[in-house]
Amino acid sequence: MHGKESKQSKMIGLIGRLALALALLTMAAGCEVVDKARMKLLGVTVENPEPETAEWVIREVLMAAKDPDAEKGWERFQKMLHSQERTNNALRGWQQFGWPRLKRQAHLYLDEQNRYVLRDFKVMQNDGIDFFLENRERDLPTPCAVYLDYANNKHWRVKRCSL
After folding, report:
1. Of 80, 106, 112, 154, which residue is the least packed, with the fewest Cβ within 10 Å?
2. Domain total for the chain?
3. Using alpha carbons only, how large is the chain's radius of gyration in Å?
4. What is the pLDDT of residues 79-124, one digit of tens each?
5. Over the range 12-31, which residues count as b (16 or more CB within 10 Å of their CB) and which as e?
């Protein structure tokens, strides 16, 4: 090797440093900080989320985008939109921009078992959560914001989404 570390040695060293950092976080911080650090480092795979949870809404949006029947998929997608996003102008915007992008890119977020990976989240004001999903083609995770929809039985629904 002549003074240069192999890729494997570098990876083992990196993993060791990350494990040490995680252990130090565990001792120095509360569980919430540790969970967020673990989520950023390893991700959290979402599989079979409970109906009407925020994670379920995101999965439903992705599954609607994968629907081979474009019309049924669009109808299914609209049901996951927050009531503030269901005005004529907002729906027109989704149909022209967000929906076509989502249809093209849904496969970048879902695996073969229709699971996706969360890399981070941020609790927003006004009862919202910004989730950041792993994308297989980009280094940075992609945001999707869900909010409680008081006009829809306080169900979680999508307000903004860059998937």
Report:
1. 112
2. 2
3. 19
4. 999 999 999 999 999 999 999 999 999 999 999 999 999 999 999 9
5. eeeeeeeeeeeeebeeeeee
Paired with 123 in beta bridges are: 129
Same domain, 138 and 106: yes
Distance CA 45, CA 148 (A): 22
Two structure tokens written together for 57: 């809404």
Residue pair 121/37 in contact (Cβ under 8 Å)? The answer is no
Domain that holds residue 13: 1-42
Alpha carbon distances (Å) from 32 to 28, 111, 113, 119, 143: 12, 27, 28, 14, 20
Same domain, 122 and 67: yes
My answer on whether 25 and 63 are in the same domain is no
**Contact (Cβ atoms closer than 8 angstroms) between residue 118 and residue 35:** no
Q: How far apart are CA 20 and CA 145, in angstroms?
A: 32
The residue with tokens 């979402």 is 46
